Amino acid sequence: MSPPRPAIKVRALAAVTRIAGVLLVPIAFCRAPGRARFLACQWALSLRFPAEDLRGLAPEALAAFTHARAEAFWRDGQLIGLTSGYRDAAEQRRIFLAEVRRTGSVSAARRRVLPPEESGHVRGLALDVRPTEGARWLERHGGRYGLYRVYDNEWWHFEYRTVVPVRLPHPDAAGWLDGHGAAHGRSRTHGDETWPDVTRPDAVDGRCSWMAQDPGARP
Predict the structure, then answer these.
(1) From 34, 48, 187, 207, which residue has the greatest number of CB atoms within 10 Å?
(2) Mind listing the pLDDT tens digit of every residue in the chain (219 residues)?
(3) What burial letters (b/e) apply to 31-44, b meaning 16+ CB within 10 Å?
(4) CA proximity to 61, closest of 33, 38, 37, 82
């Protein structure tokens, strides 16, 4: 059975992006000889994901993310784009209140999105990434850069941490963590983690369906 046409398009765009990265290396070398491959990767990915916005990220989170995706690009040919990074408190509050209205309660909303005073996005330390395979790569290798998937129910959400975090089932799980007495600095996974069907076009690339249908579902 042939892959769906959108999936073929995504693969073609990924191949073009990798070729663009190679072609951009000489230009990047003229600008920064010691960082040519790094710069060429960032330029190529900015062409592939033109809507991404890296502004506002904490310097350490920005450095970790850009270096991690450069490794993914050159070593494994994997593309990683940013769907959502820094948000100011007003935007985060709007997203949270929209989720409260959608779910009908604060407690239900907090399982999907946090208020600004608790959100890693407002601190510039959280990153929502795409596509699915890019998130898989980051979950496997991001720890070398201090980037960790922190919630079982959100495959796209990573945060910069200086200590390996305990994996939580969902954003509103601080009470769960305290109740289980888990030690900070030790990773924990759960059996209910979910990954979308990577054959679905919206799970592979673009603005994923969860974002298009439910923009408040991001911590």
Answers:
(1) 48
(2) 666 778 899 899 999 999 999 999 999 999 999 999 999 999 999 999 999 999 999 999 999 999 999 999 999 999 999 999 999 999 999 999 999 999 999 999 999 999 999 999 999 999 999 999 999 999 999 999 999 999 999 999 999 999 999 999 999 986 556 555 544 434 444 334 454 533 333 333 333 333 333 333 456
(3) eeeeebbbbbbbbb
(4) 82
What are the CA-CA distances from residue 196 to residues 109, 130, 135, 208 (Å)? 21, 12, 11, 10
Peptide bond into 115 cis (omega under 30): no
Neighbours of 91 (CB within 10 A): 15
pTM comes to 0.80
First to last CA, the chain: 38
Tokens of 129: 């990434």
What are the structure tokens assigned to 141, written together? Answer: 């290798």
Q: Which residues of 205-215 are buried (b: 16+ CB within 10 A; e: fewer)?
A: bbebebbeeeb
